[in-house]
Design a protein that fits this description.
By secondary structure, the protein is mainly beta. It has a domain of about 100 residues. About 10% of the residues lie in helices and about 35% in strands. It contains four helices and 22 strands. Strands 6, 7, 10, 13, 17, 18, 19, 20 and 21 form a nine-stranded mixed β-sheet that branches. It has an eight-stranded antiparallel β-sheet with strand order 1-2-3-4-5-14-15-16, covered by helices on one side. It has a five-stranded antiparallel β-sheet with strand order 9-8-11-12-22, with no helix packed on it. About 25% of the residues are buried.
Length: about 350
Amino acid sequence: MKNYLMLMIFASSFLFGQQNSDKRYKELAGRYGGNDGICLFEDGKYMLYGYATAIFGTYTFEKDQLNFNPDKQELFMIFGSQNPTLGNAARLYFSGFERGGAAVQFDQEKPRAVFNDDANCFASPYVYETKTKPTQIILSDFVDGTWQQSKFTIPKEYNDLAIVHNEASRYEENFTGILKSEGEKKVLTISMSDRGFKKSNEDKNDNNWREILQMKSEYYLAKDSQKNGVFFNKHYQNFPTPASSTYTLDQKTNQFISKNAEDNEAYFRNDQYNDNRYLRKYLKVEGQIIADQTFNKNNISTKSLFFTTCDEGSEKSYKYDGIIEYEDKNDDRQPMRTLEPVPAPK
């Protein structure tokens, strides 16, 4: 899930010093559970997993108790890039807003819900285009009985934005654990569940454990690379940092282009979402948490940014138009735009 590549992790130097000196980290490392459960790693990190869930964090020991501290995500994040093909217009991709409730405000416009009430039948990506670039974006969501808001001042050169909503989850709350022995098995019981998770017998050479370590490696690699920017194709599919040996930066289009782009043209016409030949780098825009005491649901416009439903009126649902439907495999058409091209400022 691309959206997991955008999670944040925090750990103190004191914590790592403690981990290196406590032999229990190595002794207890392994997978506890089956289809769902928790993995403990030798370096003091853990992964809580289940259906469509993978939450990382760190753990420490307090006598016989384990204290788990999940990675805390920023509620809202924005990544921006300069897209010369857009001119003075802007393109905004919204990710993670499907569960509803969140609102967006561009400059002095009235706040608007990102999705309509009771929205369903989602089909990502959701891309909103404007004729002018917003200079300020305020994002709001109703969390734990109050409106949480973040304000972003958008650098003037950024006209292509990826806007991310990391919805709060109970899995991101601190919890504790107790390890006991049942015969030859170790059982880990955690406070957020009334179940005990038995430690599996798999060793370091087991394929399942190798896959888990690979997930962990990819997660922390993404966290580290996020400092230097994230990479999307034009359909906002997320990809690792392109290698300089296989990509070149085209200054005119501000894209990293695969050296084998032309050779793979026919292949990617059938898989445009996963086309990694043309990638653009997006840098994080730092936000500021604000508290508007006057903000409430009555402030929000009745017209949402996107409308989607499976029910009556489904014909009016938003449909992404960036994918080309080729009739002729040799057709070189460009995708249709919802806005007329605007010449770039000189």
